[in-house]
Amino acid sequence: MAKGATVAAYVEASLCEAARQELQAQGGRAGDVRVRAVCLPSPFEAKKLNLATLGANARQATQDSSAVAYLEAFDPRAARFTHRILETAQLPWIASSSGTTAMSKLLKLIAESGGGSLREELRHELNLD
Question: Does the chain have fewer CB atoms within 10 Å around its N or its C terminus?
Fold first, then answer.
């Protein structure tokens, strides 16, 4: 990863506010890498999971070449659907009930990365490969 590069973390709606606060608290950076959080629309309508929105969110993340991770709320129903899309693009994900925890973990992993393909390194560190 080039010094001063900017990468994106796509964040599900329920985690977004806390993830952004954590990112701001860390100065918007992980080591020499600038990180931006992209908040996604909620995949829930009247407490019912909307698969079209869920799929659109995952596809949006996979189509962004600057995306290095997808931060998602822990939901096995949603994961069965989104992980297939994310796997195809080899985009790693972090599932958590806390946006703060998910963003903190991502920032730590980015800061500790060795400079190769960040997506590949994150997938390896998260045991997704």
Answer: C
